[in-house]
């Protein structure tokens, strides 16, 4: 679903956010899948295209994305929709489907989902300064993975984390990268 104005808005920015929401859809569907774009005027992500999916396998997500892409290109004649950056959760089917639909786009993990994964791992760990760690991670969620690693190393030393705690954090970051 989308209005012509929303379809047009989805192309105004070269960056989109793709996400599935589970708790707001009828029982026969798995999730409400939404494509959002960053609106420079309001400084917010605006939902542009959404649809209900029955599962979140690569073929299903691919069908949704291809439909959305065809819809945008049909309404906005002579336009080829290829966002330069796609932010999404760390689910492999979603990553694969987006890479197939938008082969020239850079796919990045969503900062919100990355932070959730780090927070879950921190909760299980014995790290004493969890709130400081989370606050610091939140401060650089818009950075690339490489820049995040670089900054993590800088402030991990300042927090005086033990070697095994640092290794655990680095392993988690590497695991998240592999899921991309």
From TrEMBL:
As recorded in UniProt, coiled-coil segments are 145-179
This protein's source sits in the domain of life called Eukaryota
- Which keywords label this protein? Coiled coil
MULE transposase domain sequence ranges? 16-116
Q: Which Pfam families does the UniProt record give?
A: MULE
Q: What protein am I looking at?
A: MULE transposase domain-containing protein
Q: Which organism is it from?
A: Anaeramoeba flamelloides
């Amino acid at each position: 679903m989308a209005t012509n104005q929303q379809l047009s808005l989805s192309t105004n920015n070269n960056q989109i956010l793709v996400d599935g929401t589970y708790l707001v859809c009828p029982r026969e569907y798995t999730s409400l899948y939404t494509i959002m774009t960053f609106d420079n005027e309001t400084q917010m992500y605006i939902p542009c295209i959404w649809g209900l999916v029955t599962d979140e396998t690569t073929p299903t997500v691919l069908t949704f994305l291809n439909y959305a892409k065809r819809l945008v290109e049909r309404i906005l004649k002579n336009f080829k929709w290829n966002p330069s950056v796609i932010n999404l959760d760390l689910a492999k089917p979603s990553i694969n489907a987006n890479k197939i639909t938008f082969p020239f786009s850079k796919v990045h993990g969503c900062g919100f989902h990355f932070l959730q994964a780090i927070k879950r791992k921190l909760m299980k760990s014995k790290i004493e300064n969890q709130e400081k760690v989370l606050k610091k991670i939140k401060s650089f969620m818009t950075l690339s993975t490489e820049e995040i690693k670089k900054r993590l190393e800088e402030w991990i030393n300042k927090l005086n984390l033990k070697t095994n705690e640092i290794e655990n954090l680095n392993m988690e970051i590497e695991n998240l990268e592999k899921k991309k």
